[in-house]
Structures
1.
Amino acid sequence: MEHKDGERLGEFLVRIGVMQEDQVRVVLREQKNRPGVLFGQIAIELGFINEKAVDDYLSSRGLD
């Protein structure tokens, strides 16, 4: 999975079809209420994605 330079996790997940844009907005809204909690953690808690999706993103950035 190719990563576009500067692409955020939510953008990546929408691009690969794992999340929808409205789900990203829900996570971002929740994240504002929970400073310090990562986007991926909230998305997993809400059941939008699983840990593999975050791992795929990290691998695409060479961070695995």
2.
Amino acid sequence: MDLELAVDGYVAAWNEVDPVVRAELLAASVADDFEFAGPTGTFHGRDAVEGLIVALQSRLGGATVVRVGPVEAGGRFRWVIATAGGSRLLEGVDEVEAGPDGRLTRISVAATPSE
């Protein structure tokens, strides 16, 4: 799998409300032993990340995660979380690592509040 496609699938999972489709997106884009390191801690496995996604969707109903631009050199991509009305809530840069099959094995988040 191409890194761009893996990141696209991962971001799409953050916006998917159907649990079956979300699980399929995560299975296709992240490895079984995926690790997510963010401001609230480090989480291991797809189920843990899916829990984070559900929590975000519950807390910020209608908000979406939008990838901004391509994956940059060094495996970094930029993103924004915006309200249904388009106001930016949070933005940041993720550093990604992928395994031999192209699926993501690790994401490290560096998020900053939007102005």
3.
Amino acid sequence: MPDLPKRERPCDDEEPVAVLTLGRPRLGRIVPFLQSSAPAERAAIESPAVLASTAFARPPRFVSTFSLWRSAAAMREYAHHSDGAHQGAVRADRARPFHHESAFVRFRPYASQGAWDGRDPLAAI
């Protein structure tokens, strides 16, 4: 995806963000990927800053997650905390990549409509 920005575009630390992850796994790295990503996923799900999250996959060719975060600062803390489970998965991937291609994309939610699990997760913000 060469047209995506290479660096994070500025946003206010307190505004909500949506994060989309995309990956095309290497077949021989699926088990290590799942083992490494499970603690990171658990940490995200347990974070009070996550308003809603889901994962979707088309095994063995595609894995993805989508999450809504209360604030950009909280999402960055989760993603970049050096002792966190997410950074452990990042280090494992950098040592021996899990994916042929991957992307981590942040969006600024500007509106919401409908319900997710019976509620609008952005309504409280």
